[in-house]
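User: Structure please.
Assistant: Input sequence and predicted structure:
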Amino acid sequence: MTNRLKDKVAVITGGVAGIGLGIAECYVAEGAKVVLTANHNVEGGQDAVNKFGEDNALFVQQDVSKEDDWKKVMDATIAKFGKLDIMVNNAGIGGQSGPIEDLSLEDWQKVIDINLTGNFLGEKFAIKTMKAHNDSKGSIINISSVAGLIGLPSVPEYSASKGGTRLLTHATALNLAQRHIDIRVNSVHPGWIDTAIIPDNMREAVVKTIPVGHMGEPKDIGEVCVFLGSDESKFADGAEFTIDGAQRA
């Protein structure tokens, strides 16, 4: 522990399992206070708070596509910790694999609502809260995907949501910088990360596509997010950080 995030408060959506929990573990280890959200995994949220301690963590149930839930999260964050330094927009879902002509509008909209609209709302409410409670300073980290850089043919809705997150990041970073508001916005693009979302029967085939010969771990994303949340990254803004074991190299 080096206290790289000492005295900083972070909201991490989807922060109770997988990549989100990996980010939270790295943040708490570096001295941050964390507010973790999830829509369905309430038990995981309670387990995470027990693990990190109530002085360091808070869980709030949230649907990231709903404005009222974002208000609830920000109110709870300020009530417990008094400010917001870091917003990690991590919550997301996968798509329905198959031809685009077979994709229903309902399935398309569900992915867009959570993965892209959720990130827009996260940026919106984080900026408002940072302006009101943190002297208009902070760091916003949007978790995209390598699918937001190259597209995956089997999941067009997922690719569109992650590509939209990439350009949302660019536009927001530039908008804030041009207005001389000291809130940085960057995107992180994970490749294959070893989480429960990957079926056991796919793992061997997945590893064969990764040049370094193994999947990443949630903490690999967490450590990059520590850098982006810390003051060490003060000149990183509107940038993309790809962590994929050389898959796109």
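The longest strand covers residues 182-190.
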